[in-house]
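YM 10:42: ABC transporter permease sequence, as discussed on the call
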Amino acid sequence: MNLLTGMPRDAATLRSAGPVRPGNLLRIARLDATLLWRNRTALFTVIGMPLLFAGLLLPARGQDIGGIDGAVFQGTGHLGFFLILVVFMHLTSVFTARREDLTLKRLRGTALSDVEILGGSVLTAAGMYLVQAVLLLALLVTALDGAFPADPLLLLAGLAAGAVIFALLAFAVSGLTPTAELAQLTVLPVLFGCMAGAGVMVPLDDAPEAVLEACRLLPLTPVVEIVRTAYFGQDFTVYGAAHPDLGFAEAWRACLRPFAILLAWAAIGRMLAARWFRWEPRHS
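YM 10:58: structure's back
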């Protein structure tokens, strides 16, 4: 499925998706990884910032947050929050920079299909995020004395859905970003909004009802709800009360609303990507 149908009139006409060849996807992904390694700013965003946030979990160890060890509570929030750093912010910068230096336009002149050109970059970001999520889980289970996730499949489903959402939002925001340097600014509303309103660091239980309902509609909040429900085996989709224990089927049923919100964000992200993503720089 091509996510970018309906490009702006002054952009190059979107050709058919064409074949998706794994070898080509891996070549673009390898190119992305090589360029990332050479870009210190991008490297800090993708690797340095997650390491910094992971290190900040250690001082929170032993604190009580909603009846849960503070480091484990915040660490489960970081499992979702790292999507913004590694997928959203990184891809926004990548697509903006490659559009402005005409790399995207040149790649479209090769035998690569549109999906291969863009999908290789998404594959790199998703792969880096997967590695960091696994390492963070290992940190929670070992050094921070957390438990093994109660439902790993539900946790994986929530993180995968979040990766799709934030990749789509990166397509859209890159189209609104005039230069690669400004990409560090255009991503800030999403970064700060999700960090403050998704319950990553502190629970939302004491928030006023209107504020709580607004926060639950943020793209990161349902990911955090699903992750914590899957990790603790308790219902973290309810607020202001104790989180009851859930069985396997009950956990999936409790997460129907968060998944529905993510589905809505997928539709919104696809629509915005189709409208705003650009293959070429704007012409004055």
